[in-house]
Amino acid sequence: MAAELKAEIEALVAKIGDKAAGQSALESLAKIAEEKGRPAEPFLVAAFPKILDASNDKSKNVKDAAVATSKTIMGMVSPFAVEMLLPAFLSGLAVKAKPPQKEATLQIISALAAKAPRAVGYLLVNLVSPVADLTCDIKKEVKQAALECMTAICNCTGNKDLEPFLPAVVDAASSIDKTHS
Predict the structure, then answer these.
(1) What's the rounded mean pLDDT across residues 25-29?
(2) Contacts of 86 (CB under 8 A, 6+ apart)
């Protein structure tokens, strides 16, 4: 069963780059995530970087399917797998990533922060800097998504004493003028 599932997921991932079959491959991956759940998780986590990269596609349909599939995977993934997804997130937030991919990655991290705050809290040291950099992005969509993401991940500290100060942290990260006052 696991070998068949792995082969099926790998075959669908191979089709993501195909102009004709990309959207249907992503939709099939989302369906597998919903229907198969945990047995498919290790294979979907391994495929996640390629799925997230598809949010950079020129076709709006493929891009939307990639974001929807990524969110579906985030909905079923175990909090223990979050660290395995970190390289894909950091790649999606990198300077070389295109704005649609940055925006999608930020939205996915925000959704994950709501679902698994403790797991995201352990990765704050890796996530805060790249997300904070995007709060000053030129594209307003990316900037807005970064502010929402920064707020979501800052709420994952697990420290109730810091909560009153989190808006100030997000505000400081979003403007260099407010950092050194």
Answers:
(1) 89
(2) 123, 126, 127
CA distance 111 to 47: 19
- Cα distance between residue 44 and residue 142, in whole Å: 26
CA proximity to 173, closest of 130, 138, 140, 124: 130
Q: Which residues contact 159 (CB under 8 A, 6 or more apart)?
A: none
**Distance between CA atoms of residues 109 and 8, nearest Å:** 27
Q: Are 118 and 159 in contact (CB under 8 A)?
A: no
Q: For residue 146, what are the contacts with CB-CB under 8 A and spacing of at least 6?
A: 102, 106, 131, 132, 134, 135, 137, 174
- DSSP structural state of residue 165: G
In angstroms, rounded to a whole number, what is the distance separating the alpha carbons of residues 86 and 101? Answer: 15
Q: How far apart are the first and last CA of the chain?
A: 60
pLDDT tens digit sequence for 74-111: 888 999 988 999 999 999 888 888 888 999 999 999 99
Residues 112 and 61: their CA atoms lie apart, in Å, by 23
Tell me how far apart the alpha carbons of residues 99 and 82 are, in angstroms, rounded to a whole number. Answer: 23
pTM of the model: 0.86
